[in-house]
Specification:
Layout: E1 14-18, H1 47-59, E2 64-68, H2 78-86, E3 93-98, H3 103-113, E4 117-121, H4 127-134, H5 139-151, E5 158-162, H6 172-182, E6 185-189, H7 208-217, E7 222-224, E8 234-238, E9 244-248, E10 261-264, E11 269-271, E12 280-281, H8 282-287, H9 292-304, H10 324-327
Parallel strand pairs: 1-2, 1-10, 2-3, 3-4, 4-5, 5-6, 6-9
Antiparallel strand pairs: 7-8, 8-9, 10-11, 11-12
Helix pairs in contact: 1-2, 2-3, 3-5
The structure holds S-adenosylmethionine.
């Protein structure tokens, strides 16, 4: 069987599937207040198209599928999509990245349909900071969503936090104390140059080193966990364990050499990297009547062309046209 291997021998097993480019929050680092030019609905992959493409990807060796967006839980057919992916002959492990707003209502149906885990994004525990950061007063809904995910057994519930200077960068210790108390696995993510405003600045980014320093100054003892594999997060045992905290240093400590991820955007483009400047138009192929062999060949070909690294620190680096929310975070 052909598989998703690139020129550098990296075997791809992890597929991020974006279900929509729309979102019900307006995190200022991700989306302007008025939203973006959303993909017209007919351009989005249908549930049938998603299930067919993910099925083919599992034939090519994909074993992990993470549903994302935009906000994947605003897609009306999300439970049906999960159930159909869970019923594939080579069913992948299924997870979702969500802002949690709709989790209180959907955690149980999603778990029953076959979703196994969730990552919930939460950058602050202050209601006022949350409102300023997301332009919506919905922190209580996120916290209720996290609780519902735990009760539905979507474990371990991971929480993603992006720290931004002058906004929530003093909250690292507070977020970790809360996560430990709640039995959640917290992961801090360095902000990447994927904002639509193109205002990302390497010099003001809150770095991995700074996050670790802040946690240690807050009194936590952190011991690195050596085996990382292809996981983006570097894990640290907190205060002797068993709890761990993760730091995703995508910019300052890239992990491209071990990357096993590939992406399908909500409008059906197959990308080998968040920072790729090329895509393969699977929606165009499917709607032109392509057979499975042609679709698989397009997937294999795009992965084969994958660049060695994201190149953020290279002099020729150009930020991708699409922002994070339109690729799938
Ligand atoms: N709406 C879902 C959510 O909130 O988790 C899924 C999509 S969102 C784009 C996925 C994750 O990407 C969130 O944790 C968000 O904070 C993060 N994110 C957005 N823009 C980012 C950036 N420029 N750099 C790093 N992470 C970013």
């Amino acid at each position: 069987m052909t598989s998703l291997v690139d020129r550098f021998g990296r075997v791809h097993r992890d597929l991020r599937v974006s279900l929509t480019d729309r979102c019900n929050l307006r995190c200022t680092y991700c989306m302007p207040a008025e939203g973006l030019d959303w993909a017209p609905t007919p351009d989005l992959l249908t549930a049938d198209e998603i299930v067919r493409l993910v099925g083919l990807a599992t034939d090519l060796g994909i074993t992990e599928v993470r549903l994302t967006g935009g906000e994947p839980l605003i897609r009306p057919d999300i439970v049906d999509i999960v159930a159909r992916l869970a019923a594939l002959p080579r069913a992948p492990r299924l997870s979702a990245t969500t802002n949690g707003l709709r989790l209180a209502a959907l955690a149980r149906p999603l778990a029953d349909a076959g979703l196994q885990r969730v990552n919930v994004s939460c950058d602050t525990l202050s209601r006022e900071t949350f409102r300023r950061l997301t332009l919506r007063d919905r922190l209580d809904d996120v916290l209720a969503g996290i609780q519902a995910a735990r009760e539905a057994g979507l474990a371990p519930v991971k929480v993603n936090s992006v720290l931004m200077r002058g906004v929530n960068d003093a909250e690292a210790g507070h977020l970790l104390r809360w996560a430990l108390d709640q039995g959640l696995q917290l992961r801090f993510i360095e902000q990447m140059p994927l904002d639509p405003q193109h205002s990302w600045n390497r010099a003001t980014m809150v770095s991995r080193a700074e996050i670790l320093d802040q946690l240690e100054r807050a009194g936590f003892h952190l011991a690195p966990v050596p085996a990382r594999g292809s996981a983006p997060a570097e894990l640290f045992v907190v205060d002797g364990g068993p709890s761990v905290v993760g730091v995703v240093g995508s910019v300052s400590q890239p992990f491209c050499d071990a990357c096993d991820r590939v992406r399908l955007t909500a409008d059906g483009q197959w990308r080998s990297c968040l920072f790729a400047r090329a895509e393969s138009d699977l929606r165009g192929l499917i709607r032109a009547g392509a057979d499975d062999a042609a679709l698989a060949a397009a997937m294999v070909g795009e992965v084969a062309r994958k660049q060695r690294g994201h190149g953020i620190d290279e002099p020729f680096f150009v930020q991708p046209q699409r922002p994070m929310s339109a690729i799938g975070g």
